Amino acid sequence: MSATQGETPRLEVRGLSKRYGPVLANDDISLAVAPAELHCLLGENGAGKSTLSACIYGLAVSDMGEILVDGQRLDLRSPADAIAAGIGMVHQHFVLVPRFTVLENIVVGTGSGLRLDLAAARGRITDLCARLHLDIDLDRRVDSLSVGEMQWVEIVKSLYLGARLLILDEPTAVLTPQESERLFALIAELKGSGIAIILITHKMNEVMRSDRVSVLRKGRLVATLTTADTTRDALTELMVGRSVATIEARHIAASQGASLSVRGLTLSAPRGSLIQAIDLDVAPGEILGIAGVAGNGQDELLETIAGIRAPRAGTITLRGEPMSSLGAAEVAGRGVGHVPSDRFRDGLARDFTIAENLILGQQWLRRWRKGPLLDRAAMAANGQDAIARYAIATTGPEQPSGRLSGGNAQKVIIAREFAKAQHLLLLNQPTRGVDVGAIEFIHAEVLAKRDQGCAVILVSEELDDLFALSDRIIVMFRNEVMGEVRRGAFDKTAIGRLMAGARAA
Protein backbone atom coordinates (compact mmCIF):
# COMPACT_ATOMS: atom_id res chain seq x y z
CA MET A 1 0.00 0.00 0.00
CA SER A 2 1.29 3.48 -0.82
CA ALA A 3 -0.01 6.82 0.34
CA THR A 4 -3.01 7.93 -1.73
CA GLN A 5 -3.22 11.53 -2.89
CA GLY A 6 -4.24 13.75 0.01
CA GLU A 7 -3.52 11.07 2.64
CA THR A 8 -1.11 12.12 5.38
CA PRO A 9 1.89 9.77 5.46
CA ARG A 10 2.54 7.94 8.69
CA LEU A 11 6.24 8.82 8.25
CA GLU A 12 7.77 11.46 6.03
CA VAL A 13 11.50 12.08 5.68
CA ARG A 14 12.53 15.27 3.89
CA GLY A 15 16.05 16.01 2.72
CA LEU A 16 17.77 14.05 5.50
CA SER A 17 21.57 14.08 5.54
CA LYS A 18 23.97 12.66 8.10
CA ARG A 19 27.75 12.79 8.02
CA TYR A 20 30.26 10.85 10.12
CA GLY A 21 33.58 12.60 9.65
CA PRO A 22 34.49 12.39 5.95
CA VAL A 23 31.72 9.84 5.23
CA LEU A 24 28.34 11.14 4.03
CA ALA A 25 26.25 8.23 5.32
CA ASN A 26 22.88 9.71 4.25
CA ASP A 27 22.76 12.23 1.41
CA ASP A 28 19.54 14.24 0.98
CA ILE A 29 17.11 11.36 1.50
CA SER A 30 13.37 11.94 1.11
CA LEU A 31 10.73 9.22 1.40
CA ALA A 32 7.24 8.60 2.78
CA VAL A 33 5.58 5.59 4.41
CA ALA A 34 1.78 5.32 4.48
CA PRO A 35 -0.36 3.96 7.32
CA ALA A 36 -0.81 0.18 6.99
CA GLU A 37 2.15 -0.06 4.58
CA LEU A 38 5.01 -2.58 4.67
CA HIS A 39 7.90 -0.53 3.31
CA CYS A 40 11.25 -2.23 2.70
CA LEU A 41 14.64 -0.50 2.97
CA LEU A 42 17.07 -2.25 0.65
CA GLY A 43 20.75 -1.58 0.09
CA GLU A 44 24.26 -2.95 0.28
CA ASN A 45 26.21 -2.93 3.53
CA GLY A 46 27.26 0.66 4.11
CA ALA A 47 24.51 2.04 1.85
CA GLY A 48 23.00 4.07 4.70
CA LYS A 49 20.07 1.92 5.90
CA SER A 50 21.27 1.70 9.51
CA THR A 51 22.03 5.43 9.66
CA LEU A 52 18.60 6.33 8.28
CA SER A 53 16.77 4.05 10.72
CA ALA A 54 18.94 5.36 13.57
CA CYS A 55 17.92 8.93 12.72
CA ILE A 56 14.23 7.97 12.53
CA TYR A 57 14.44 6.22 15.91
CA GLY A 58 16.44 8.98 17.62
CA LEU A 59 19.64 6.97 18.01
CA ALA A 60 21.40 9.52 15.79
CA VAL A 61 20.63 13.17 15.07
CA SER A 62 20.58 14.19 11.42
CA ASP A 63 22.68 17.12 10.23
CA MET A 64 19.98 18.35 7.86
CA GLY A 65 16.40 17.55 6.99
CA GLU A 66 13.08 16.88 8.65
CA ILE A 67 11.23 13.87 10.05
CA LEU A 68 7.43 14.00 10.37
CA VAL A 69 5.00 11.48 11.86
CA ASP A 70 1.32 11.90 10.94
CA GLY A 71 2.17 15.36 9.61
CA GLN A 72 3.83 16.57 12.81
CA ARG A 73 7.47 17.66 12.56
CA LEU A 74 9.62 15.94 15.20
CA ASP A 75 12.80 16.97 17.00
CA LEU A 76 14.26 13.54 17.73
CA ARG A 77 17.13 13.61 20.20
CA SER A 78 16.77 10.14 21.72
CA PRO A 79 14.77 6.90 21.40
CA ALA A 80 12.55 8.22 24.18
CA ASP A 81 11.53 11.06 21.84
CA ALA A 82 10.79 8.56 19.08
CA ILE A 83 8.74 6.30 21.36
CA ALA A 84 6.73 9.30 22.54
CA ALA A 85 6.01 10.11 18.88
CA GLY A 86 4.73 6.59 18.19
CA ILE A 87 7.87 5.09 16.65
CA GLY A 88 9.05 1.63 17.75
CA MET A 89 12.08 -0.40 16.68
CA VAL A 90 12.95 -4.08 17.03
CA HIS A 91 16.71 -4.40 16.74
CA GLN A 92 18.49 -7.35 15.17
CA HIS A 93 20.11 -8.00 18.56
CA PHE A 94 17.36 -7.92 21.15
CA VAL A 95 17.49 -5.50 24.08
CA LEU A 96 15.61 -7.59 26.64
CA VAL A 97 16.69 -8.24 30.25
CA PRO A 98 17.21 -12.03 30.42
CA ARG A 99 16.40 -12.40 34.14
CA PHE A 100 13.19 -10.38 33.95
CA THR A 101 9.84 -11.94 33.10
CA VAL A 102 8.06 -11.14 29.86
CA LEU A 103 5.71 -8.79 31.73
CA GLU A 104 8.58 -7.01 33.47
CA ASN A 105 10.45 -6.55 30.19
CA ILE A 106 7.42 -5.02 28.52
CA VAL A 107 6.54 -2.57 31.26
CA VAL A 108 10.02 -1.63 32.52
CA GLY A 109 10.43 2.13 32.48
CA THR A 110 6.75 2.84 31.82
CA GLY A 111 5.62 3.76 35.33
CA SER A 112 4.99 7.29 36.50
CA GLY A 113 6.58 8.36 39.75
CA LEU A 114 7.07 5.40 42.08
CA ARG A 115 3.90 3.55 41.08
CA LEU A 116 3.35 0.95 38.38
CA ASP A 117 -0.02 -0.77 38.13
CA LEU A 118 1.11 -4.25 37.07
CA ALA A 119 -2.41 -5.65 37.13
CA ALA A 120 -3.65 -3.01 34.70
CA ALA A 121 -0.57 -3.49 32.52
CA ARG A 122 -1.12 -7.26 32.47
CA GLY A 123 -4.69 -6.76 31.30
CA ARG A 124 -3.68 -4.40 28.49
CA ILE A 125 -0.90 -6.70 27.31
CA THR A 126 -3.15 -9.77 27.45
CA ASP A 127 -5.73 -7.98 25.29
CA LEU A 128 -3.02 -6.88 22.87
CA CYS A 129 -1.68 -10.43 22.50
CA ALA A 130 -5.19 -11.77 21.96
CA ARG A 131 -5.80 -9.28 19.14
CA LEU A 132 -2.54 -10.35 17.50
CA HIS A 133 -3.16 -14.09 18.07
CA LEU A 134 0.03 -14.37 20.13
CA ASP A 135 0.27 -16.90 22.93
CA ILE A 136 2.91 -15.53 25.32
CA ASP A 137 3.26 -16.52 28.98
CA LEU A 138 3.80 -13.16 30.67
CA ASP A 139 5.31 -14.80 33.76
CA ARG A 140 8.08 -16.71 31.99
CA ARG A 141 11.61 -15.41 32.30
CA VAL A 142 12.99 -14.15 29.02
CA ASP A 143 16.09 -16.36 29.26
CA SER A 144 13.80 -19.40 28.98
CA LEU A 145 12.21 -18.24 25.70
CA SER A 146 13.10 -19.32 22.18
CA VAL A 147 14.55 -16.69 19.85
CA GLY A 148 11.22 -16.45 18.03
CA GLU A 149 9.35 -15.87 21.29
CA MET A 150 11.81 -13.14 22.25
CA GLN A 151 10.99 -11.38 19.00
CA TRP A 152 7.26 -11.48 19.77
CA VAL A 153 8.07 -9.88 23.15
CA GLU A 154 10.04 -7.08 21.47
CA ILE A 155 7.16 -6.39 19.07
CA VAL A 156 4.52 -6.48 21.82
CA LYS A 157 6.63 -4.09 23.89
CA SER A 158 6.78 -1.57 21.03
CA LEU A 159 3.03 -1.83 20.47
CA TYR A 160 2.33 -1.55 24.22
CA LEU A 161 4.30 1.70 24.16
CA GLY A 162 2.00 2.99 21.44
CA ALA A 163 3.98 2.42 18.22
CA ARG A 164 2.14 3.46 15.06
CA LEU A 165 5.31 3.01 13.02
CA LEU A 166 7.44 -0.09 13.64
CA ILE A 167 11.00 -0.54 12.31
CA LEU A 168 12.08 -4.19 12.01
CA ASP A 169 15.84 -4.64 11.53
CA GLU A 170 16.69 -8.03 9.94
CA PRO A 171 13.79 -9.64 11.87
CA THR A 172 14.15 -13.19 10.47
CA ALA A 173 17.93 -13.51 10.82
CA VAL A 174 17.62 -16.01 13.68
CA LEU A 175 14.20 -17.56 12.99
CA THR A 176 13.24 -20.96 11.60
CA PRO A 177 11.28 -20.94 8.31
CA GLN A 178 8.07 -21.61 10.27
CA GLU A 179 8.77 -18.73 12.68
CA SER A 180 9.47 -16.43 9.72
CA GLU A 181 6.05 -17.27 8.28
CA ARG A 182 4.46 -16.52 11.65
CA LEU A 183 6.21 -13.17 11.69
CA PHE A 184 4.81 -12.23 8.29
CA ALA A 185 1.35 -13.32 9.43
CA LEU A 186 1.80 -10.98 12.40
CA ILE A 187 2.92 -8.18 10.06
CA ALA A 188 -0.33 -8.67 8.13
CA GLU A 189 -2.28 -8.32 11.40
CA LEU A 190 -0.40 -5.11 12.25
CA LYS A 191 -1.06 -3.65 8.82
CA GLY A 192 -4.72 -4.49 9.26
CA SER A 193 -4.80 -2.30 12.36
CA GLY A 194 -3.22 0.63 10.49
CA ILE A 195 0.35 0.26 11.72
CA ALA A 196 3.09 1.17 9.26
CA ILE A 197 6.16 -1.06 9.14
CA ILE A 198 9.66 -0.42 7.83
CA LEU A 199 11.42 -3.69 7.07
CA ILE A 200 15.21 -3.83 6.75
CA THR A 201 16.27 -7.12 5.19
CA HIS A 202 18.77 -8.60 2.76
CA LYS A 203 16.52 -11.55 1.88
CA MET A 204 14.98 -10.93 -1.52
CA ASN A 205 12.06 -13.28 -0.92
CA GLU A 206 11.08 -11.04 2.03
CA VAL A 207 11.68 -7.85 0.06
CA MET A 208 9.18 -9.07 -2.53
CA ARG A 209 6.49 -9.39 0.15
CA SER A 210 6.56 -5.65 0.86
CA ASP A 211 4.17 -3.05 -0.57
CA ARG A 212 6.92 -0.67 -1.65
CA VAL A 213 10.69 -0.72 -1.53
CA SER A 214 13.19 2.14 -1.24
CA VAL A 215 16.66 1.34 -2.58
CA LEU A 216 19.71 3.06 -1.11
CA ARG A 217 23.15 3.11 -2.72
CA LYS A 218 26.19 4.88 -1.29
CA GLY A 219 24.04 6.97 1.03
CA ARG A 220 21.57 8.18 -1.59
CA LEU A 221 18.02 7.09 -2.34
CA VAL A 222 18.12 5.81 -5.92
CA ALA A 223 14.48 4.68 -6.25
CA THR A 224 11.22 4.00 -4.43
CA LEU A 225 9.14 1.42 -6.29
CA THR A 226 5.86 -0.43 -5.92
CA THR A 227 7.10 -3.96 -5.28
CA ALA A 228 4.46 -5.63 -7.42
CA ASP A 229 5.69 -3.62 -10.41
CA THR A 230 9.35 -4.68 -10.21
CA THR A 231 11.49 -7.83 -10.04
CA ARG A 232 14.24 -9.24 -7.86
CA ASP A 233 16.79 -8.80 -10.61
CA ALA A 234 15.80 -5.17 -11.20
CA LEU A 235 16.03 -4.37 -7.47
CA THR A 236 19.38 -6.12 -7.18
CA GLU A 237 20.79 -4.12 -10.08
CA LEU A 238 19.51 -0.87 -8.54
CA MET A 239 21.12 -1.84 -5.23
CA VAL A 240 24.59 -2.86 -6.43
CA GLY A 241 24.78 -1.11 -9.80
CA ARG A 242 25.18 -4.35 -11.76
CA SER A 243 23.47 -7.69 -12.32
CA VAL A 244 24.25 -10.40 -9.77
CA ALA A 245 24.42 -14.09 -10.59
CA THR A 246 22.81 -16.69 -8.35
CA ILE A 247 25.51 -19.20 -7.52
CA GLU A 248 24.59 -22.79 -6.84
CA ALA A 249 27.14 -25.50 -6.29
CA ARG A 250 27.45 -28.17 -8.92
CA HIS A 251 27.61 -31.40 -6.99
CA ILE A 252 30.94 -33.13 -7.43
CA ALA A 253 32.08 -36.40 -5.98
CA ALA A 254 34.18 -35.73 -2.89
CA SER A 255 37.44 -37.60 -2.40
CA GLN A 256 37.17 -40.96 -0.74
CA GLY A 257 37.81 -40.98 2.98
CA ALA A 258 37.44 -38.27 5.59
CA SER A 259 39.65 -35.21 5.84
CA LEU A 260 38.00 -34.31 9.16
CA SER A 261 36.62 -37.01 11.46
CA VAL A 262 34.81 -36.24 14.74
CA ARG A 263 33.71 -39.01 17.10
CA GLY A 264 31.70 -38.73 20.32
CA LEU A 265 32.57 -35.06 20.73
CA THR A 266 31.13 -33.72 23.98
CA LEU A 267 31.56 -30.29 25.53
CA SER A 268 30.23 -29.73 29.03
CA ALA A 269 29.07 -26.65 30.89
CA PRO A 270 28.20 -26.20 34.59
CA ARG A 271 24.49 -26.67 33.81
CA GLY A 272 24.69 -29.37 31.15
CA SER A 273 26.19 -30.15 27.76
CA LEU A 274 27.01 -27.55 25.14
CA ILE A 275 27.44 -30.31 22.56
CA GLN A 276 26.51 -33.94 23.11
CA ALA A 277 28.26 -36.94 21.52
CA ILE A 278 28.59 -35.47 18.02
CA ASP A 279 29.83 -37.71 15.18
CA LEU A 280 30.61 -36.32 11.74
CA ASP A 281 32.95 -36.76 8.78
CA VAL A 282 33.86 -34.34 6.02
CA ALA A 283 35.76 -35.44 2.94
CA PRO A 284 38.26 -33.33 0.99
CA GLY A 285 36.31 -31.23 -1.50
CA GLU A 286 33.02 -31.66 0.37
CA ILE A 287 30.78 -28.99 1.93
CA LEU A 288 28.87 -30.15 5.01
CA GLY A 289 26.08 -27.75 5.95
CA ILE A 290 24.79 -27.41 9.51
CA ALA A 291 21.29 -25.95 9.95
CA GLY A 292 19.72 -24.84 13.19
CA VAL A 293 18.43 -21.83 15.09
CA ALA A 294 21.17 -19.91 16.90
CA GLY A 295 22.11 -21.29 20.30
CA ASN A 296 21.75 -25.00 19.60
CA GLY A 297 25.44 -25.91 19.84
CA GLN A 298 26.70 -24.87 16.40
CA ASP A 299 29.08 -22.18 17.71
CA GLU A 300 30.49 -24.52 20.33
CA LEU A 301 30.99 -27.34 17.83
CA LEU A 302 33.04 -25.20 15.47
CA GLU A 303 34.97 -23.57 18.32
CA THR A 304 35.90 -27.01 19.67
CA ILE A 305 37.11 -28.20 16.27
CA ALA A 306 39.07 -24.94 15.92
CA GLY A 307 40.83 -25.51 19.26
CA ILE A 308 39.21 -22.57 21.03
CA ARG A 309 37.40 -24.88 23.47
CA ALA A 310 38.68 -28.13 24.99
CA PRO A 311 36.28 -31.10 24.69
CA ARG A 312 35.31 -33.18 27.71
CA ALA A 313 35.21 -36.34 25.61
CA GLY A 314 35.60 -37.51 22.05
CA THR A 315 38.20 -37.26 19.30
CA ILE A 316 38.97 -34.91 16.42
CA THR A 317 41.32 -35.95 13.63
CA LEU A 318 42.39 -34.02 10.54
CA ARG A 319 44.01 -35.99 7.73
CA GLY A 320 44.59 -38.82 10.19
CA GLU A 321 46.35 -36.64 12.78
CA PRO A 322 44.75 -36.08 16.22
CA MET A 323 43.71 -32.51 17.04
CA SER A 324 41.60 -32.89 20.19
CA SER A 325 44.33 -31.60 22.52
CA LEU A 326 45.60 -28.77 20.31
CA GLY A 327 45.04 -25.07 20.98
CA ALA A 328 43.72 -22.58 18.44
CA ALA A 329 47.14 -21.49 17.16
CA GLU A 330 48.26 -25.09 16.65
CA VAL A 331 45.01 -25.99 14.85
CA ALA A 332 45.38 -22.96 12.55
CA GLY A 333 48.95 -24.10 11.87
CA ARG A 334 47.56 -27.40 10.57
CA GLY A 335 45.80 -25.51 7.74
CA VAL A 336 42.45 -24.71 9.38
CA GLY A 337 40.57 -21.44 8.85
CA HIS A 338 37.70 -20.39 11.12
CA VAL A 339 35.20 -17.61 10.39
CA PRO A 340 33.29 -17.00 13.68
CA SER A 341 29.62 -16.08 13.94
CA ASP A 342 30.16 -12.68 15.61
CA ARG A 343 32.54 -10.72 13.43
CA PHE A 344 33.27 -7.89 15.84
CA ARG A 345 33.28 -9.86 19.08
CA ASP A 346 35.35 -12.85 17.94
CA GLY A 347 36.70 -12.12 14.47
CA LEU A 348 38.30 -8.69 14.63
CA ALA A 349 40.11 -6.39 17.00
CA ARG A 350 38.16 -3.16 16.40
CA ASP A 351 41.04 -0.84 17.28
CA PHE A 352 43.54 -2.70 15.08
CA THR A 353 44.03 -1.67 11.48
CA ILE A 354 42.90 -3.81 8.57
CA ALA A 355 46.53 -4.74 7.94
CA GLU A 356 46.95 -5.84 11.57
CA ASN A 357 43.71 -7.84 11.60
CA LEU A 358 44.71 -9.65 8.41
CA ILE A 359 47.68 -11.26 10.20
CA LEU A 360 45.97 -11.68 13.58
CA GLY A 361 46.99 -15.05 15.02
CA GLN A 362 49.88 -15.34 12.57
CA GLN A 363 51.99 -12.44 13.76
CA TRP A 364 54.73 -14.81 14.99
CA LEU A 365 55.39 -16.14 11.46
CA ARG A 366 58.67 -15.15 9.83
CA ARG A 367 56.96 -13.59 6.80
CA TRP A 368 55.43 -10.87 9.00
CA ARG A 369 58.52 -10.03 11.04
CA LYS A 370 61.66 -7.99 10.60
CA GLY A 371 63.83 -9.22 13.43
CA PRO A 372 61.90 -8.79 16.70
CA LEU A 373 59.49 -6.27 15.13
CA LEU A 374 56.55 -6.54 12.76
CA ASP A 375 57.34 -5.93 9.10
CA ARG A 376 54.96 -3.04 8.45
CA ALA A 377 55.81 -2.88 4.74
CA ALA A 378 54.91 -6.56 4.25
CA MET A 379 51.70 -6.07 6.22
CA ALA A 380 50.72 -3.03 4.15
CA ALA A 381 51.35 -4.90 0.88
CA ASN A 382 49.27 -7.85 2.13
CA GLY A 383 46.54 -5.43 3.14
CA GLN A 384 46.45 -3.80 -0.28
CA ASP A 385 46.27 -7.22 -1.96
CA ALA A 386 43.36 -8.30 0.26
CA ILE A 387 41.51 -5.00 -0.28
CA ALA A 388 41.80 -5.42 -4.05
CA ARG A 389 40.98 -9.15 -4.14
CA TYR A 390 38.02 -8.99 -1.77
CA ALA A 391 36.71 -5.54 -2.85
CA ILE A 392 36.86 -4.17 0.71
CA ALA A 393 35.42 -0.64 0.80
CA THR A 394 37.97 1.25 2.88
CA THR A 395 40.35 4.19 2.86
CA GLY A 396 43.30 1.79 3.01
CA PRO A 397 45.02 -0.93 5.06
CA GLU A 398 45.70 1.49 7.93
CA GLN A 399 41.99 2.16 8.57
CA PRO A 400 40.82 0.85 11.98
CA SER A 401 38.60 -2.18 11.42
CA GLY A 402 35.97 -0.89 13.84
CA ARG A 403 35.02 1.77 11.29
CA LEU A 404 34.09 -0.76 8.61
CA SER A 405 30.51 -1.68 7.73
CA GLY A 406 29.44 -5.19 8.71
CA GLY A 407 29.86 -6.62 5.22
CA ASN A 408 33.34 -5.14 4.76
CA ALA A 409 34.42 -6.32 8.21
CA GLN A 410 33.30 -9.81 7.17
CA LYS A 411 35.45 -9.59 4.05
CA VAL A 412 38.53 -8.83 6.18
CA ILE A 413 37.91 -11.96 8.28
CA ILE A 414 37.27 -14.06 5.18
CA ALA A 415 40.49 -12.82 3.55
CA ARG A 416 42.48 -13.86 6.63
CA GLU A 417 40.82 -17.20 7.34
CA PHE A 418 40.58 -18.39 3.73
CA ALA A 419 44.33 -17.83 3.43
CA LYS A 420 44.85 -20.13 6.44
CA ALA A 421 42.45 -22.82 5.22
CA GLN A 422 44.58 -25.29 3.30
CA HIS A 423 42.77 -28.43 4.50
CA LEU A 424 39.69 -27.40 6.53
CA LEU A 425 37.47 -24.31 6.46
CA LEU A 426 35.00 -23.68 9.31
CA LEU A 427 32.37 -21.11 8.35
CA ASN A 428 29.90 -19.81 10.93
CA GLN A 429 27.20 -17.51 9.48
CA PRO A 430 29.49 -16.18 6.71
CA THR A 431 26.71 -14.20 5.00
CA ARG A 432 24.87 -12.95 8.10
CA GLY A 433 23.80 -9.34 7.56
CA VAL A 434 25.61 -8.93 4.24
CA ASP A 435 24.10 -7.76 0.99
CA VAL A 436 23.36 -9.77 -2.13
CA GLY A 437 26.54 -8.66 -3.90
CA ALA A 438 28.71 -9.75 -0.97
CA ILE A 439 26.79 -13.04 -0.74
CA GLU A 440 27.56 -13.76 -4.40
CA PHE A 441 31.25 -13.09 -3.74
CA ILE A 442 31.40 -15.20 -0.55
CA HIS A 443 29.63 -18.13 -2.23
CA ALA A 444 32.12 -18.04 -5.11
CA GLU A 445 35.08 -18.02 -2.69
CA VAL A 446 33.68 -20.98 -0.72
CA LEU A 447 33.26 -23.00 -3.89
CA ALA A 448 36.79 -22.11 -5.00
CA LYS A 449 38.12 -23.46 -1.70
CA ARG A 450 36.08 -26.61 -2.11
CA ASP A 451 37.41 -27.07 -5.64
CA GLN A 452 40.95 -26.85 -4.26
CA GLY A 453 40.19 -29.95 -2.14
CA CYS A 454 39.50 -28.17 1.13
CA ALA A 455 36.89 -29.75 3.43
CA VAL A 456 34.27 -27.19 4.44
CA ILE A 457 31.79 -27.01 7.30
CA LEU A 458 29.17 -24.32 6.72
CA VAL A 459 26.95 -23.26 9.64
CA SER A 460 24.15 -20.95 8.56
CA GLU A 461 20.67 -19.93 9.65
CA GLU A 462 20.08 -19.00 5.99
CA LEU A 463 18.69 -22.12 4.33
CA ASP A 464 19.30 -20.52 0.93
CA ASP A 465 23.05 -20.56 1.72
CA LEU A 466 22.94 -24.19 2.76
CA PHE A 467 20.84 -25.30 -0.20
CA ALA A 468 23.07 -23.46 -2.67
CA LEU A 469 26.40 -24.79 -1.40
CA SER A 470 26.07 -27.97 0.65
CA ASP A 471 26.56 -31.56 -0.42
CA ARG A 472 24.93 -32.73 2.83
CA ILE A 473 23.06 -30.90 5.61
CA ILE A 474 22.84 -31.99 9.22
CA VAL A 475 20.43 -30.25 11.60
CA MET A 476 21.26 -29.41 15.23
CA PHE A 477 18.74 -28.87 18.01
CA ARG A 478 19.58 -28.54 21.70
CA ASN A 479 23.21 -29.51 21.15
CA GLU A 480 22.50 -32.75 19.27
CA VAL A 481 22.24 -33.80 15.63
CA MET A 482 18.60 -34.42 14.74
CA GLY A 483 19.09 -35.79 11.24
CA GLU A 484 20.90 -35.55 7.90
CA VAL A 485 19.64 -34.66 4.41
CA ARG A 486 21.60 -35.11 1.18
CA ARG A 487 21.59 -32.87 -1.89
CA GLY A 488 18.64 -33.79 -4.07
CA ALA A 489 16.37 -34.23 -1.05
CA PHE A 490 16.67 -30.72 0.47
CA ASP A 491 13.27 -29.47 1.62
CA LYS A 492 12.67 -26.31 3.69
CA THR A 493 9.62 -27.64 5.47
CA ALA A 494 11.28 -30.89 6.51
CA ILE A 495 14.47 -29.16 7.62
CA GLY A 496 12.43 -26.55 9.46
CA ARG A 497 10.75 -29.34 11.46
CA LEU A 498 14.16 -30.75 12.39
CA MET A 499 15.27 -27.25 13.42
CA ALA A 500 12.25 -27.10 15.74
CA GLY A 501 13.19 -30.40 17.42
CA ALA A 502 11.38 -33.14 15.47
CA ARG A 503 13.96 -35.91 15.12
CA ALA A 504 14.28 -37.58 11.72
CA ALA A 505 12.55 -40.95 11.42
From TrEMBL:
PANTHER family: CARBOHYDRATE TRANSPORT ATP-BINDING PROTEIN MG119-RELATED, GUANOSINE IMPORT ATP-BINDING PROTEIN NUPO
One protein family per Pfam: ABC_tran
Residue ranges constituting the ABC transporter domain according to the UniProt record: 11-243, 260-503
Keyword vocabulary terms for this entry: ATP-binding, Nucleotide-binding
Record family assignment: Belongs to the ABC transporter superfamily.
The keyword RNA-binding is assigned to this record: no
Identification of the protein by name: ABC transporter ATP-binding protein
Native source organism of the sequence: Aestuariivirga litoralis
A molecular-function term among this protein's GO annotations: ATP hydrolysis activity
